[in-house]
Amino acid sequence: MKITRLFDFLAYQLKNSPRPDSIVMKRHGEWIPISTQEYVNKANAISRGFLNLGVKHGDKIAIASTTNRTEWNLLDIGLQQIGCISIPVYPTISESDYAYIFNDAEVKFAFVSDAALYEKITSIKNQVPSLVSVYTFDNVDGAPNINEILDLGSDADNQHEVDAVKQQVKSEDLVTIIYTSGTTGRPKGVMLSHNNILSNVLGSNPRVPKFPSEKPKALSFLPLCHIFERMLIYLYTYNGIGIYYAENMETIGDNLKEVQPDVMTVVPRLVEKVYAKIYDKGAAAGGIKTKIFMWALKLVEDYQPFESKGLGWTIKHKIADAIVFKKWREGVGGNLTCMVSGSAALSPRLNRMFWGAGIPILEGYGLTETSPVCSVNSMSKDGFGIGMVGKPIDGVEIKIADDGEIWVKGPNVMMGYYNNPEMTADVITPDGYFKTGDIGELINGNLKITDRKKEIFKTSGGKYIAPQNMENDYKQSRYIEQIMVIGEGEKMPCALIQPNFENVATWANTEGISVPSAKEEMVKNEKVIDLIQKELDTHNKSYGHWEQVKQFRLTPTEWSIDGGELTPTLKLKRKIVLNKYKDLYKEIYGHFPGE
User: In this structure, how many other beta carbons lie within 10 angstroms of the beta carbon of residue 208?
Assistant: First the structure.
């Protein structure tokens, strides 16, 4: 069958590879599967329910959920089939951003996961004239529930109406507006059509590896409101891969062992946290066990996939694998063919180690505006490179502009920014290239990202500093949780650092060093400052003298999504971090920009 709309992927699965566990979530300690047929039936019921409610083609419906859950999928497909436009929204944004997005998009109905989000959105309902009602997934006292829509559509007698409306939905129709959280300013509404996203699915499909399992499974935890995970959900559906939703970030370790997935998507910060736990466990084992663990790590520090290192090394690697790395794989379920990493750059050292441990990580690159994938590594020698993000996917063209900016052209490039033709014209050239704002280079056809164009800055001496790569390098330290390199227009680059308080405390205990437990006191402790300085010194060696971080200050609070320092995809909100720690900036430079 020909796939021209996103909901066709579900019909394709029903016809070609139906599953008893098409989408699965955990409720009250039990995994509850929804089969492909039930998925289709419930999506149809939602479509019928909306038609009975008077919802029309082109109406905007918002969805916000604190965790990934199957109701999201049912609602997504149900809306698509009758030509509605979904407005997925991050649960962590402020009430003022909700009001802005809902008014900008003229949202008619909103669906939220739980009582806290219901309260949050109903608090701004009187500020949004278009908003008729807010529904919930959980049972919340006094709140309309998604089951009411399912009940409205329980009678299949008007399914012919749904089928007729489906026929009117075109590939080029707007299907979703995704408001980018952004690191500065108001959210921008990225308009994506059915064809934008489905072309991305079909273009990425040749990079999907072959799975040993007859019925492969994916574990999903990255937010569905982000286009990366959402596109992959359609890709999994197309390939007949069962989708299991992790309960939350804290339970991922347990969920991996329960589900034993063949594939999962990650962000670099999760990989870093997984490695930190593995390292801590190995380092704490003591005696000969710790020595063997450290030997195994050293062995794969410079691991290069698809290259032979000789018989002697191979024998050592087999020993390390049997004693150490087999346990790593068991810890992530035992069946992972690969993990796919996006959102930010992954440490090359960590990537080598995980490949060496038999847990390949494929880095990709993309943006919301490109639906999202532009390029991704493959499980082949010519399509893979450590520190690179692969070759462009099918149908996508990448070129490097004169100033090093990455430009992308293809059917995946957005329709434009909603209600903002001027901003659209700023980022899309007359011949259709999207200007990504990222700096990179093509090496034998493989893309390498070097930094964000807008984040590169000059010191007062005229030297360019590319902070993102430096930050990713410094974060390889177990004692540095977050770091932001600063110094635009200043004589030298410095840094604001949030320590990994837990690892610092463990280090102090192991070394028999007395360190205050209160974070406000810990960041002022000379021994802790010396520890971080040594970590910086180690990584500073790989940079030119003008690039090296000369001074730093430790922050007593943890940087988080809720705190406003990080976007939902864990990128730094630089202006917010800068303003929040203005006093620390002044301690370093003696003044604050603009003051």
Answer: 21
The residue behind tokens 């019921």 is 45
> Which residue ranges make up each domain of the chain?
265-408+432-452, 457-589
| Cα of 9 vs its chain's centroid, Å | 22
Burial tier of 435 (Cβ tally within 10 Å: 0-12, 13-18, 19+): middle
Give DSSP secondary structure letters for 362-402.
EEEEE-GGGSSEEEE--SSGGG--TT---EEPTT-EEEE-T
Label residue 395 left, alpha or beta by phi (over 0 means left) and psi (-120 to 50 means alpha). left
Of 241-255, 429-443, 562-576, where does mean pLDDT reach its minimum?
A: 562-576
Report the alpha-carbon distance of residue 552 to residue 507 in Å, rounded. Answer: 20
List, for residues 120-169, the tens digit of each pLDDT value. Answer: 999 999 999 999 999 999 999 999 999 999 999 999 988 999 999 999 99
Report which DSSP code applies to 321: I
Burial of 595 (0-12, 13-18, 19+ CB in 10 A): exposed
Can you give the C-alpha Rg of the chain in angstroms? 25
How high is the pLDDT of residue 8? 98
Residues 6+ apart with CB under 8 A from 306: 380, 381, 384
pLDDT band, very low/low/confident/very high, at 183 (cuts 50, 70, 90): very low
**Residue 9 and residue 40 in contact, taking contact as beta carbons nearer than 8 Å:** no
Higher pLDDT: 426 or 476? It is: 426
Residues 32-40, mean pLDDT to the nearest whole number: 98
CA distances from 386 to 144, 203, 262, 303, 553 (A): 50, 22, 22, 10, 32
Highest mean pLDDT (candidates 134-148, 303-317, 491-505, 534-548) = 134-148
Please, are residues 566 and 572 in contact by the beta-carbon 8 Å criterion?
yes
H/E stretch holding 583: helix 582-589
Mean pLDDT of all residues in the chain?
93
258/532 Cα distance (integer angstroms):
38
Task: Name, in order, each residue with C-beta under 8 angstroms of 545's C-beta and a sequence gap of 6 or more.
Answer: none
What would the two tokens of residue 168 be?
């009117």
Q: What is the phi-psi region of residue 243: left when phi exceeds 0, alpha when psi lies from -120 to 50, beta otherwise?
A: beta
430 burial type by CB count under 10 A (0-12 exposed, 13-18 middle, 19+ buried): exposed
Measure the CA–CA gap between 338 and 219, rounded to whole angstroms.
Answer: 12
Please name the CATH architecture into which domain 457-589 falls.
Answer: 2-Layer Sandwich (3.30)
Q: Angle, to 10 degrees, between the axis of helix 268-284 and the axis of helix 287-300? A: 140
Q: DSSP letter for 239, please.
A: T
Is there a contact between 329 and 357 (Cβ–Cβ < 8 Å)? yes
227-238 and 8-16 helices, crossing angle to 10°: 30
pLDDT band at 323 (very low <50, low <70, confident <90, very high): very high
Q: pTM higher than 0.90, yes or no?
A: no
